[in-house]
Amino acid sequence: MNSETKPQNIIDRPRYWRLAVETGGDMLRALARSTVDDSALLNFALPLDPLAANPTAALEEAVYSVPALLSDFGRVDVVVRTGAFTVVPDVLDEGGRMAAAECAGIVGDSDTLRTDTLPDCEAAVMWSLPSDTANFLARTFRNPRLHSHIGVLARYFGRKSAMGNCGKTFVHFNGMESIDIVAFGADGRLLTLATRQAATDNDALYFILATIGANRFAVETDELLLCGDRRRRESLSPTLRRYVRSVLPVIFPSAAYRAGGDAMDAPFPLVILPLCE
């Protein structure tokens, strides 16, 4: 099912399906996959009502408009796209992590603070979401597992960074809205974990070049790897190759190919989520 089609019926035998939802910004995106039939996949996106009373109300309206999302899935994962995150060393205890989150200004009185561990990076992502959103997700889906978008990307790319002996900067294009940058040194150490608003190619180019400059990226030997929105990758790659010798696409996970072409159109964090476990 392509991203323009919205399923209207409850999924047959949903306990044999896994649902992944990405929320944040002005869209709700969903990817449902069968665990017994590799070719069975639903991928769709819904705009959130900009006139809703608040973001949680808009999310509720979108979820309830799709009966298939309310099926009793075998597993539900929710990826929250948020700028309210900070990175801390994994050796910090709970008190230290809370202090870091407060210093970063990412949590308020009406927010819920969460932690995504990054074992391969020896770090953790502290992130927050509104408590009313967290409560809605908990009562709507059966035991949903919540993740930040940047935590999913960091876990996946952290494993990829161990391949080879050069520095690697990964850039994920989230449509025309933003870019996510995850950079590692030649020794595999995490250097940058960031999300930047980049509505134009010039914005994206600025943040990418600023990152590789700050990290002393070796333009002749280190690698710049791109994924996400195809149009933006194709538009920026020729310009980036003027500055960096190795500008490469992130190899699409082979396991996802079995679901057909629709998987390639799904949000990258939802596609790689099963590979981050």
How would you characterize the overall build of this protein?
By secondary structure, the chain is α/β, with parallel strands linked by helices. The protein contains 9 helices and 13 strands. The protein has a 5-stranded mixed sheet. Strands 11-10-9-12-13 form a 5-stranded mixed sheet, with helices on both faces.
The whole-angstrom Rg is 19 Å
Give average pLDDT, whole number: 91
Helix content: 25-40%
Please report which band the strand proportion falls in: under 5%, 5-15%, 15-25%, 25-35%, 35-45% or over 45%.
Answer: 25-35%
Distance between the termini: 26 Å
Oligomer: single chain
Quick summary of this structure?
With 277 residues, the chain is an alpha/beta fold. The protein is built from nine helices and 13 strands.
Core attributes:
31% strand, 13 strands, 9 helices, five-stranded mixed β-sheet, alpha/beta, 277 residues
Give the secondary structure arrangement, pairings included.
Elements (H helix, E strand, L loop, with lengths): L16 E8 L2 E8 L6 E7 L7 H10 L10 E6 L4 E5 L4 H11 L6 E8 L4 E8 H10 L4 E4 H12 L7 E7 L3 E7 L5 E8 L3 H14 L8 E6 L1 H11 L5 E4 L4 H4 L4 H4 L2 H5 L5
Parallel strand pairs: 1-4, 4-8, 9-12, 12-13
Antiparallel strand pairs: 1-2, 2-3, 5-7, 6-7, 9-10, 10-11
